[in-house]
Amino acid sequence: MIYRSIAILVLFALPAAAAETHAYRAARLWPGNGPAIVDAVLIVRDGKVVAAGKRADVKIPNDAVMHDLGDVTIIPGLVVAETTLADRGKDDLLALTPHYRAIDGFDPFGDYSLALAGGVTTVQLSPGGKRLLPGQGSVVKLFGDDLVRRTLREEESLRLVLGDAIKNPPRIYEPPVGAVSVDRPLLPTRPQLGGGLPNVMAGLRAAFQAARGDQNVSDGLIRSMVDAGTARKPLRVVATNLAEVSAAMALADEFKLRLVLVDPPAATPEQMESWKQTVDGVIINPGMRPGMIADVTPSDDASSTTAPAGRNRRRNPAPAPARDNRPTAKRNEDTPSSPAETARDIRAAGMRVAIKPMLDADLKEMLYLGGLFATHNNSADVLKMLTAEAAELLGVGGRVGTLVTGKDADFVVLSGEPFGLHTRVRSVYVDGQVAYDAAAANRSKVIRGARLITGNGDTILNGSILVEGRTIRAVGRDVSTPPDAEEKRFAGAVIVPGFLDLGNGLGLGGPLNSNIGLNTKLGARLVSSEPGAAAARQGGVTTVLLSAPAPSPVLAFKLGEKLRPVKDPVALRFAIRGNLTQAGASFRDTLKAAKTYCDSWTKYEAELPEYEREKKEYDVKLKDYEKKAAAKKDEKKDEKKDAKKEEKKDDEEKPEEPKAPTRPQANDALEPYRALFAGKIPALVEARREDAIRLAITICRDEFKLRTILIGADDAYRVADLLAEKNVAAIAGPELVRTVDRNEVNLPLALAMRSVPVGYQSLATSGARHLPNAVGFAVRHGLGSDEALRGLTAAPAQFLGLDTVGTLAVGKDADLVVLSGMPFEASTRVLAVMIDGQWAYREGE
After folding, report:
1. How far is 554 from 561, CA to CA, in rounded Å?
2. What is the pTM of this model?
3. Among residues 733, 672, 743, 679, which one has the least CA distance to residue 707?
4. Residues near 694 by beta carbon (within 8 Å), at least 6 away in sequence
5. Percent of the chain residues past pLDDT 90, beyond the cut
6. Which of 21, 126, 356, 373 could lock 45 by a disulfide, CB 3.0 to 4.6 Å apart?
7. Which residues, at least 6 apart from 138, have a Cβ–Cβ distance to it below 8 Å?
8. Burial 554-565 (b: 16+ CB within 10 A, else e)
9. pLDDT digits (tens, 9 = 90+) for 66-101
10. Parallel, antiparallel, or unpaired: how do β-strands 411-414 and 425-430 relate?
11. Confidence of residue 10 (pLDDT cuts 50, 70, 90)
12. Paired residues of 245 in beta bridges
């Protein structure tokens, strides 16, 4: 009742959504109740199947959203007839708890992604497996926000577990309520129904007699058994040998019960024929776990074994006719039948068969396990065992199990035939909603193009890249391709590293014009709805820098669907402008104070290890000294005069404690400079005029030995040799080619000719997408395309210390741009952009 109440509350909390029609085209569609349909279409509206059939026979509504899935196979969502997803090992101490419902132990908000990834959409929940009558099973879907719609059956069957469950049930102690007295003494523990099979069946017979005798019985245990064993709620029997099956059949005959057998022992065709008068269906496990090996020893006595169905059983030499019309080989009497053979024979006897895994951990491999049954059953029959027959057996065939008009739109998109060895689940839909998408969920992608320009000087013709998660794992002519990898081939395309924009207004949803402290973490201020990010991605920009007016920290972050900090801070930004005498003096004083602070910490951190070493030695010596002193006192405690002399001598031998280095006073405002002076991050200095550039180099490089990058250095071409000599990089833009004194100045070209590392900035938001075009204009005016591409990728990554971006190499972040032609050609378009292993932009989407 608690589960139902929660479901109703959630139902009323959900907003109403307008129904939208979707049409899914596929090469094949298996409806679940018949042969495959070739060249098929599935129409879905409001979570229900509207139509399914050959494309030529089904009219597609004009307003339908089309999904051309290509060469794939669509099947119904898999229905698993028994799981322990609600069991959790919490079997009650009581042997009889028929009132317990499995759904009350099910977590609807749990993570069932692995089962969904295997195509499983509907499952039966078992109430337990260690007691005689552990409770009632339930049937639910594994995905969906509407908990009422997900609950298909709250009470599906009453479970009866024979075998070991009936032999030694624990004794029960029920303490009295209130005080204990002579009149109300402590009672001993009492036994439960159990022991031998005759005793157990007699007790069950009495319980069913009570349930059938008075429909208004007040006892909760008996009341829950009133409708048990009906066609609507059958008795689900776990029997380990034929004697237990016979006992269950006798009970069913006496009380007109309908049974479902779980992993029954092997039986002759004649015995199976007799079952169908009482048995609605049989649930079988495959007798193995995927990828695991275990010994199977045939048993001489079918009644003595407790193995799963079809295992460790003596086979009767007269087999039933094969359902797939293939000849059945004559077997020796001691040859055990396989689960596939058992399933075939049970279906031949006219009973339904459903498949369950040995453990819930194997739910993700239900198609593989189903394929094992195809050795003695045709594929269409096996698919029915996983869909239509399982749904009918659970009493939910009116909702799930087949793809026919009016049923729930639960379906699975496969890469090939359902039981093909290399078939993979591409996507899973529950009630028409995507519950699993392999393209988004798998960790491997292979991208192929006509040419890879890696950014580190290599060009690979007809190359490919393997991506796992957000990391590049292989780059080469023909990389290894995992079987579940998503492959994307761009014919005739050129693939290059993602571009870096070293200055624009993206990240905060608006400009950052106010001053902030150098210890501010800008990464915490990134917004999730940056309006200009999508436009920048269309130009191939994947990583950008963000800063405030100088002095300011500088943040490097990714432009994925969710903005992600890469390094915070990646640099500190300063400016030298206006009155250079005043600006230079102020800048120099700031750095002096910061260096003094940093040097004090450097000195402290250098002295601390030596002090800690000496302190450990001192502690050892002190402990040894105290031990020796105590021993001497004990020896001479009666000789006071001598003891005093000895104490004085001990004082002289006492080790001297080392002096701890003085810990500097922490200053939050100066803390960011420690990384700067340690060389871990560079100084980005805004200096445009030649004199400002020279002053910046003098202060930063000559006086303080800082890693230095000039920003907006318009006159850097005048001192290119100085920049090269001092190992200073430059960030150019937004205007790369301009006219100065009637002469054309191509700043990137001038710096490249002196081997000065260059990066680029757009100083734009939505206009950041045009940064590659601006660089292309510099190429048109003489800049080499290799140098131009380096300035957009590898060069800035190197001088900023961004080790995971800038090149297409193993271990780097999977940031790449797919171009229709060679970089910087006027006709070249951006076809796709990947950031952190996910497609952030694809042309036409």
Report:
1. 21
2. 0.53
3. 679
4. 719, 722
5. 55
6. 21
7. 86, 101, 102, 103, 106, 124, 125, 151, 153, 154, 155, 156
8. bbbbbbbeebbb
9. 998 888 999 999 999 999 998 654 556 676 778 888
10. antiparallel
11. very low
12. none
Distance CA 231, CA 156 (A): 10
- Nearest by Cα to 766 from 564, 480, 592, 541: 541
Distance CA 309, CA 353 (A): 12
d(CA 610, CA 605): 10
> Is 662 exposed, middle or buried (CB count within 10 Å of its CB: 0-12, 13-18, 19+)?
exposed
Where do the DSSP E strands lie in 454-602?
459-461, 464-468, 471-476, 486-497, 499-501, 541-547, 552-558, 564-575
SS3 call for 293? coil
Task: Output b/e per residue, 628-650; b: 16+ Cβ within 10 A.
Answer: ebeeeeeebeeeeeeeeebeeee
**Among 173, 109, 105, 114, which Cα is nearest to 135's?**
105
- The CA distance from 80 to 210, in Å, is 33
Whether the CB-CB separation of 342 and 284 falls below 8 Å is answered with: yes
pLDDT in tens, 422-443: 888 999 999 999 999 886 655 6
In the three-class reduction of DSSP (H, G, I as helix; E, B as strand; rest coil), residue 560 is classed as coil
Q: Give residues with Cβ within 8 angstroms of 646, minimum separation 6.
A: 632, 633, 636
Distance between CA 723 and CA 721 in Å, rounded? 5
Q: What is the pLDDT of residue 513?
A: 84
Amino acid at 742: R
Cβ atoms within 10 Å of 514's Cβ, excluding its own:
7
